[in-house]
Amino acid sequence: METNKEQGGQEPLKPHKPIETNYAKHQDDPGPSRQAVDEYDKNGAAVALKWIIPILIIALLIYWLFFK
pTM, whole model, 2 decimals? Predict the structure, then answer.
């Protein structure tokens, strides 16, 4: 079983740590930086996967129904 330290110090039902504003003060156990929280994901895979996965499912369903 993983210890709490191996899980990143997060309890499953506890809220996430607040955004870090003073790294030197919390250097031993910092929260996420402002850049990590507010970063815009302009080149993410979600846009491509939104189209690829349904097309693949339909193609595989057609193959399974007609060629098996």
Answer: 0.40
